[in-house]
Write a structure and sequence with these properties.
With 144 residues, the protein is of the alpha/beta class. The chain contains eight helices and six strands, in the order E-H-H-E-H-H-H-E-H-H-E-E-E-H. Helix 1 (7-13) packs across helix 2 (20-32). InterPro entries: PIN-like_dom_sf, PIN_dom, PIN_toxin-like.
């Protein structure tokens, strides 16, 4: 199964005590290999931008962000998505468009997000949009 994680899901997964559901999803990918994860260079750059924020460095630490980027580069499928293809996707928040473009280009079955602009869509193309809790339940792992 192909999946796309919204950037927020990755960042929350770096804080296991505060966000156990997101952490469990990341572990399902890494340890159980229940799905194949797709990303893009734009998403990796967004993670790097977030990692430079003072609050992120205080709460999470630069090393965890570095490990996440390294992990994505080695274990996720990184797509190249031309700006034109991203511009064709329109959401209430244009900064979310690249996440939907990853889902469409990868032909992902799942897009996992808690984003208030994306969640209401419930589906884009053939991609089902689920919250992290819904995704965890779908994989039959309700314990965190």
């Amino acid at each position: 199964m192909r999946a796309v994680f919204d950037t927020q899901v990755y960042i929350r997964a770096l804080q296991p005590n505060a966000y156990p559901v997101e952490t469990a999803l990341l572990r399902l990918w890494l340890d159980k290999r229940r799905f194949e994860v797709y990303t893009s260079q734009a998403q990796i750059e967004e993670i790097r931008r977030v990692s430079r924020r003072k609050i992120a460095q205080t709460r999470i630490g630069k090393a965890k962000f570095g490990a996440l980027v390294k992990l994505l580069k080695s274990r996720a499928v990184t797509l190249t998505i031309p700006a034109k293809e991203i511009d064709e996707v329109v959401t209430a928040d244009p900064s979310d468009d690249f996440i939907l473009a990853i889902a469409l280009k990868s032909k992902a079955q799942l897009l996992i997000t808690d984003d208030k602009h994306i969640k209401p869509l419930r589906k884009i193309g053939h991609t089902q949009i689920l919250t992290p809790a819904e995704a965890l339940q779908k994989f039959g792992n309700t314990r965190v």
